[in-house]
Amino acid sequence: xxxxxxxxxxxxxxxxxxxxxxxxxxxxxxxxxxxxxxxxxxxxxxxxxxxxxxxxxxxxxxxxxxxxxxxxxxxxxxxxxxxxxxxxxxxxxxxxxxxxxxxxxxxxxxxxxxxxxxxxxxxxxxxxxxxxxxxxxxxxxxxxxxxxxxxxxxxxxxxxxxxxxxxxxxxxxxxxxxxxxxxxxxxxxxxxxxxxxxxxxxxxxxxxxxxxxxxxxxxxxxxxxxxxxxxxxxxxxxxxxxxxxxxxxxxxxxxxxxxxxxxxxxxxxxxxxxxxxxxxxxxxxxxxxxxxxxxxxxxxxxxxxxxxxxxxxxxxxxx
Length: 319
Known about the structure:
Phage tail protein beta-alpha-beta fold; Elongation Factor Tu (Ef-tu), domain 3; Phage late control D family protein
């Protein structure tokens, strides 16, 4: 099959201009707070217009025979010009992670619904909030944001609830970690890969974490004393180093730590012919590779590369 792509600036297609000049297209989609990225490397004859920083691009990848799949929206962040050879490299990100969302700020939040907290921060940065259904009824009794960026603050909260907070395109996401679900709670369809689909791989199969029980400390505002809550049963026990402001926050952190311990630390890197369906957080089912590596995995990072040599995808997976 013949690989193809499209690049749009709003409603205007840039594909006819870019296609004959394309040296390479690199697109990276990552789970977590890291921003997705798009890099276009073009032959530059000196007459090619230099895109302005902040310009919005949309990208789709696929094959002429099967059609294109949208891969998201990106904002031009940097343009590099070089010689020899004459080249222009356009770097764009899925979200602006260099602006006010990274600026330190202080604010106290008291008895606030998580959806309202995410909504307030999203509105502050011109984004639309998307919170997973699991968290829509969650009320945070109290939490302080002290000289901490909104991005770091949300990531800290997400870690307490075994979730992911991430700006993506025009949205600010707060979703379950490693569940293969959309923000609405819809399960993403698993992609099935067989050993013959895979060009190369590298897997690591370490043992799971050993602890069975987690203890988290918190400040009891009624008694003024430090108390603790325990999640899980058996030994060994892990005691979290932080002291949390409320019992609810301590319990959430302990639950998140237990879930992390239960997850396998196995990882798998795969390279295969380009497949635009492979995106971060999508489940993958592998068969016919080898014992120990076959089974269900979740994509943590997907990298798509297109050039005159063809179209390849490289994915990083976890259990």
